[in-house]
Amino acid sequence: MLNDALFYLSKAFWAVARPNTLALVLAVLGMALLWRGRRWGRWPALLGLGWFVAIAATPLATWLTWPLEDRFARPAEPPARVDGVVVLGGAVDVELTAARGLPALNGAAERMTEAVALSRRYPQARILFTGGAPNPLGGELTESGAARLIFEGLGLSGPRVLYETTARNTHENAVASLALARPQPGETWLLITSASHMPRSMGVFRRAGWTGIVAWPVNYSTGTTSMSAFDTPFGQRLSQAEWALREFTGLVAYRLLGRTDALFPAP
């Protein structure tokens, strides 16, 4: 019951606290107040418009994302032996897949393609995809169901491929996949997720009791210089900044809930 309540509360909170949405509301509210002669309306207007100007005129989105994406790097040398690979959901567009009947991927598609590549590099490794219904209202198709369509279409099938179908967030990913995989002492498992999501993911998996879990980040969204940020379209930079702030918010919330082993997990 507590997990359910926290899940719905987190969805409701982010629906109103998303930086881009909040900035737009503040800008519109401030402009409306100024139009009605309320001079104090300039403050919400400046805050709201200031957010969009900062994203457009500076590499703010990159600066926010760098600490997350650079926190965990892949091993300098790939492990000689890998017993399993855990793939976090988030790369599959479940609603579009269900609507069109064809597997649909989003901007985190590298989570899926990297899993297939690793399955070929380590043919003895188990591949575990974890992801339930991402929509709070539920649905017939889960992320794992859509992932199965993609993996089997790419030739990845058989008993070594496991699908965890209930997890709705990163904490549930870690707990449910641990129960399904039952990794043994001394085994090495790779964790695939977006680089910006890796700090929270590693903290959660460690806290859940995973040992021998190794970060394998994919889906980088930043370059190595601040100037590279200006090559990214404005809309994408808005999404990037919002995602980074969401991750920092999630890190704080998960630490307060005791779901991670540190406020900002490190290698």
Automatic annotation (TrEMBL):
The processes (GO biological process) annotated in the record are:
Gram-negative-bacterium-type cell wall biogenesis; peptidoglycan metabolic process
Matching Pfam families:
DUF218
Domain of life per record: Bacteria
Q: Which InterPro entries match?
A: Cell_Envelope_Assoc, DUF218, Rossmann-like_a/b/a_fold
Which residue ranges does the record assign to the DUF218 domain?
83-250
Q: Which UniProt keywords apply?
A: Membrane, Transmembrane, Transmembrane helix
GO CC terms of this entry: plasma membrane
**Entries under Gene3D superfamilies matching the protein:** HUPs (3.40.50.620)
- TM ranges are 12-34, 46-66
Q: What is this protein called?
A: YdcF family protein
